[in-house]
Every structure is written in C-alpha cells, then in structure tokens.
Fold beta-lactamase.
Amino acid sequence: MYRRSVAIFGTFVVILGILALKVASLAIIGGPEISATAQRQQEAVLTVAKKRGTIYDCNGVALVNNGKSLTAIVEPTFFADRQALYELLRPVALDISDEELLKKVERKSPFTLTVNRRLDEQKGLKIIDTVRRYEGAILAPHILGNVTADGLAGLSGIEKAFDELLADGGEMTASVTLDATGKPLEGLPVSIFSEHYDSKSGVVLTIDSKIQAIAEQAARDHFEKGAIVVAEAKTGKLRAVVSQPGFVLQKMSYYLSSDNGELLNRAFENYNVGSIFKLVVTAAYSEKEGKPYDKSVFCDGGITVGGRRFACHYANGHGWSDLTRGFTKSCNPFFIKMAQDTGYNEIIDMARRLGLDQKIVFADGLSARAGNLPEKSSGAPPALVANTAIGQGEIMASPAGLAQLTQVFANDGYKLPLTLIEGTVDEAGTFTPAEGVRGEQVVRPGTAELVRSLMEQTCQSGTGTTAVPEGSTAGGKTASAETGWREDGEAVIHGLFTGFFPAEDPQYVITVLVENGKSGSVAASPVFREIAEGILALEGGS
C-alpha cells in the first residue's frame, strides 16, 4: 500500500514537471508574439492621410498632389477643459461639422482632424504636414476629372480611367499607446508611420502645363463657352485641352444642379462644323482628280440648287472666283460647284479617311465623340450635296476631331492619332512610356500641301487674317457654323477656327470653338493668335 502511494505521488510529480516545462517553453518560444499582440491591443492606430497617385504633365510637373494640408492629432484626455479644446479647434477645423467635432472632443479616444492653419503644439496636440490633392482652381479640370467626396476613387477623366493605378498613392498613420482603460499614456510620444506616402507613382500626360495655362487664359479673355485644343502637328500629342467654363472640385454640388454645363468637356463633344468642312471638299477633289480644282465660279451672293437658294456669307457676292479666291474668301457657291464636280460619295469617303466619323480614344472610358456624317448615297439630291459642301445639316465633329483633321494637312497627309497619355511612373519615379501609336498616310503629300497652302493664304489675305501671330506665320480655316437653334429670338451660330503655325513648317495645331460666337473670323481667330503668340514667347524664352 505504501509503495503504491509512493508510485502515484511520483507519477503526479512527473506530470506537474512536464506541465511546468510546457508553460516555460510557451513563455520562451511564444513570448515575443504574445507580448506584441498585447502591445497592439494597447495601441490606437489613426489614419493621418491617404494619398492617390500623382498625375503629371509632360515635363514631370505635378498637376495634383501639389497642395499643402495640415492634420492635427488630438488626444482629448490630456485636456482637463474639453470645452476649451473645442473652442481651440472649432475655428480651424475643416471638413467636419461643429456637432461632430464636439462629440470627438468629449470622447477619450484620440482622433485626427484637418485644420486650416498650424496650431502651437502641446501635450495631446500634434500637427503633421500632409498633401492636398486639389487646391482651388486647377489646370485642365475636364481632363483630370473628379473624385468621390472622400477623395479615394475616381469618377471621371484621368482619375477614373487610371483609378486602379492612382488608388494606392500611399498612406500616413499615427500610433498612440493606450493604457488598460483606453486612455493615451503620458510620456510616450505619438509615432508616425509612412506607408509609401512619398511614392511618386502615377500617370504622365502629354499636356504641357505652361501651354495649358496659356490656352486657359485665352479662353477666359475671349469667351464664356467654348473649347480649345492644342496638339503637336508632327506627333499628335495633345499639349492643351480647354473647356470653358471650367470647374473646381469644391463646388461640385453646385455644378450638378447648374444648367451652364461646367462639367461638360466641350473639347470632346460634337458641334456643327460649318465651313471647316470645305477642307474636306478641297482634298476630295484633289485626291480624285490628282490636281487642284481649276474652274472659276461666279457668286452673286448665293446659288440656287434643286430649287433651293443657298446664300453666301457675303451678300453682295464675290463675283468670279478661282480656287484661291474661293477658298480664302470661303465662298459658298464656289464650294457647292466644286462639290458637284467632285461627287457626294467621294466627299463622304474623304471625311471618313480623315477620321471625322471616328471616336478618338485616349484611355479607357476617356474619348472624344465620333463625329456625325451623312450616309453615302448613289443618288444624293442636289440640295444634299450643296448642304454637305458647306458643312451644314447633320455633319458634326468635336474640336478634338477638327484638330485631328488639321493635323493631317499640317503633317503632309500623314495622320497620327491624337494622344493624351505619355506613360506611367512607378513608386521610385521610374518612367515607362505608353505604347506608341501607328500612323497612316491618308491623303497624298501633294494634296496636303495644296490644302496647307490655301490655309496659309487664307491667313494672309482672306477670312483668317486676325489669326496670324505677331512675328510669325499661320494657316487656317474659319467657320460660322449654323446650328438651327435660336436663343432669345436670334440664330445660334458657333464661331470656329482651326489652323497651324508656323505656316512654313507647322509645329502646332490649334482648334478654337466659341459657342454662339457668330463669326469664326471675329470670335475664334484672335484666340488662335493669342495662344500662338504665347507659345512662341514660351519657346523663345521671353
């Protein structure tokens, strides 16, 4: 019996020993993990700031994330007088109601707060410098687009097209050590952590911020509603895209209920083209016959076709006109006769070759509308041919589409699709270029040279003289495009000008649309000149 009791006791001691060893093992092996878990449970991790990726211009200038912001880290329990804390924060607090701020101040939990000025730091209050994505008026708002109220998702423009790339631009957090009751511990500093907050990742546009600024200023100087497109003639890269009026993100709720169309990107929307279409007619005849139109046409202020009178913009008539006079004076009867000799289907084919019926895609979900062209017809009525010759009726195109058409003639008939994306940048700032575009010869170099020469003469002695920049040369075509609408009893007529400069070696294409500008010569051509002079001054270093 005694030996049995001893055996049982011995077994019990052995078991206790094994358990003791197991506990010791857990303490040694798992100790750091358990300790870290406990530590995490005693920390409050606050989001100080989240940042989307950056959108750059072609020279690496940040178009967003270039504003400055301040974030306060507040630990209310360090303030005996919570009302005094509230009164300190209320005048400087941003993006928060007074009621919500008061609730945060009355709690014991630490919180962050965006403030409009730097406060003196004290125990329980720390100020951190952060980045503001959009601040006031920005360049190219219709291209950049807008984001959700929390700033974390793109809703339009580049923000939406590259949302996946831009979504993760980095984050800054703060860690506050708490006691067992959830109150911050005195004597322990707030720890700040950056999760790629200094990342350079983003997308690079072809837009040149300096040229964009010049174009936007010209728009503000000359019209209330309209659009401007500036592209390089030899590359098709867009250097400026303006839609007037613009918008600022801080007033989005106002724009959503506005009938002024601030959010509409007019540069990518369709408009009646008017006499700009005469470029197409001229090219169509040259391509068909292999030579310029060589007939003279008499204008007495209009021409009757199919029982319908088509008026010329010059009521007294231009008299007899050859190609140079007919083109530079934009004589309607001249172009109607040339269209009849060219053929309706040949003209529509040329418009398609020049891309007027094609959508211009810049990125996923970001494009200029496809223009509108009438269908081909083997028996087109004479009145339809006449209407088409002068760009009236259902013919429509976007300012971007007209810039594309002009680029073809400025570049010896070689079409390079307009582009907006230069490439992307990774976190370290390494640039990866976008996939190159493929061009094509859409008209003979001789045809392009003919049209280009006529456009130059238009600016020398025709309807486009007000477009010529001082100290340089230009070529272009004016238009006063009838819309068929009436406003306050008057016909709505858009003023357009599309052209290039310098004339002898085109570097830039500029298209200007002025809604209800009445006359391309009066409303649009001077805008072209101001932009061209601005670019020349920029490149001349003045």
User: Anything to note?
Assistant: The longest helix spans residues 2-29. The mean pLDDT is 91. The first strand starts at residue 43 and ends at 50.
